[in-house]
Automatic annotation (TrEMBL):
Keyword DNA repair on entry: no
Domain Leucine-binding protein, first and last residues per copy: 30-367
Endpoints of the signal sequence: 1-26
Species annotation: Corticimicrobacter populi
Keywords: Amino-acid transport, Signal, Transport
Family recorded in the similarity comment: Belongs to the leucine-binding protein family.
Pfam families xrefs: Peripla_BP_6
GO biological process, one term: amino acid transport
Name of the protein: Leucine ABC transporter subunit substrate-binding protein LivK
InterPro entries: Leu-bd, Leu_Ile_Val-bd, Peripla_BP_I
Amino acid sequence: MTFSFRRLPIAAAILAAGLSAASVQAAENIKFAVVGPTTGPVTQYGDMVREGVLTAVEVINAGGGINGSQIELVTIDDGCEPKQGPVAANRVVNDGIGFVIGHVCSGATIAAADVYDGEGVVMVTPSATAPALTDGKNYEFIFRTTGRDDQQGPAAARFIIDKIKPAKVAVLHDKQSYGQGIAAAVRQDLLAGGVEVSMFEGINAGDTDYSAVITKIRGSGADFVYYGGYHPELGLLMRQAAEQGLKARFMGPEGAGNPDINAIAGDAVEGMLLTLPSDFASNPRNADIVKAFEAKQRNAAGAFQMTAYTATQVIADAIKGANSTDPAKVAEYLHANSFDTPIGTVSWNKQGDLNEFDFQVFVWHKDGSQSAFE
């Protein structure tokens, strides 16, 4: 498979000065940027990704680094806001950084991707699941280490059809790229499976009173609610539904899998269903990696820690494999090879999506724990 790549401007400048990329990497640290929310209402998702990236960087550096060079990590905030995505991306470019783990939220990632691909910066997102990130874009430098909403949505819908067997389903979303996209995928597959979707409606993220929506759910006759979006709104929906006596079970995507949802929803969170990446932390083959997390009081079992660790590792492995810090050569190596990682053997199709990724359904409990649905 042949790809056409553009050279990162800084790399071209180095070569023009008569230095090879290999000689530079032997003498200097290699900068990786981790980009995601360090401010705003969903900073916890950024924390999960940073925990995975930091742990991977520490393990790689302790093992001798990349071809003798250490990884130097630069953290950049985008607030999980689409309008801040290009701002953060341009900072990466201006700082001469050729490798990015992130962004975290789909909207910000989509907004930043054109900058990275146009400037020849390798970006691997461990958490942006919206298909719009890659569909029809012909990107060369953009990759994921997580699945897409059109993989996660059908998994959720099939579970609802086969295991829940509801009378009617209300499907809600937060009107944003991620939430609306996955909600639409769930609705489509429910309808195809013969399940009545009695309501499909967007809510305003950041609102504090969803009484009117809950009244509509009750009026629609739904006994099951699927919500596409993040934990703050889903937590409020569940709490206010319980307060108003609505007897319906709730389900959400991995973006709602945040321990802070317990404080928002209270006891109403018990039994919430989530589609999440497999529990990679429980895999015995990852025992040493889990110990590395635990040594720094980090949790390896969250939604994005292992996918973020994997994103960092595959960039490092591709630099080693290409024997170059030229992002164009690294991107080419990523496209052409598969990698053994904590989430399994990974490889990508032409547009940078994983060839395989499994989502599983978990039950969330009021003590903050989760268990596989049985």
